[in-house]
Amino acid sequence: MKPAWICRRTSAALVQDCFPPRDPESHKGDYGKVLLLCGSEGFAGAAALAAKAALRSGSGLIYTGVPQAVYPIVAAKLDAPMAFPLPDKDGKLSPDALPEILKRLETVDACLLGPGLGRSPGVDALVLEVIRHCRVPLALDADGINAAAGHIDVLRGAACPLILTPHEGEFRRLTRKAEKDRIDGARNLAFETGAVILRKGHTTVITDGEQTYVNRTGNAGMSTGGSGDVLSGILVSILGRGIPALEAAAAAAWLHGRAGDLAAVRLGQYAMGPGDLLDELPRLLP
What is the pTM of this model? Predict the structure, then answer.
């Protein structure tokens, strides 16, 4: 294991490598087809924020699968990101949605699973089955992480590149091992799960257990509901263009935090919200 102090800083240069100039002869299929599985009754905004972030980050095609109960709400919030309904129970995704999800996974380049899903035995079962069957890069966030906590064997057995994006509470649900510092803890979890870990916080740690980035963009004004959904949408968009998981996660963390810093300058940390991060992304991308 490499010493924890051998880390790289995220940077604008890293982001530039992930966003080369667009070919004038290209088309929407060249910029990634992504599947987002998000939302539940009361949390329709999570799906909309993640989808809009994927759009602002350059995805060519965005398919947003949401529970039938919230489909009209999400569809009304989105234009270019295409929303579609999935079977639900009590306003949350049902295991009956699995066949349609698996069919969609065969046609996309990356998947995001978790923002706003809510918790239920059905949701937990569905999340685990998606992890088992997914073969494209999979970003697991929020209730996707909560559903997988206690099932490290499923995470370790994933046949796809897997990225986990926990905040501190979610991180503690994934592992209760003692740690010397946040970097060691993230690296240990990466070794344990075989996943890239994006451990959110004042200093975000991104690691695959061998290579580690630290990110220091961002500010306390981003400590509000929905901010993590924007990060997840940025991440799945970068993954969908074929960027390796570690570099995609590091670039997404820098972009997300830098957009937050620009929003704070414009609005102040108390007044800014997650939608303001979306407004700043165009200033950061070619």
Answer: 0.96
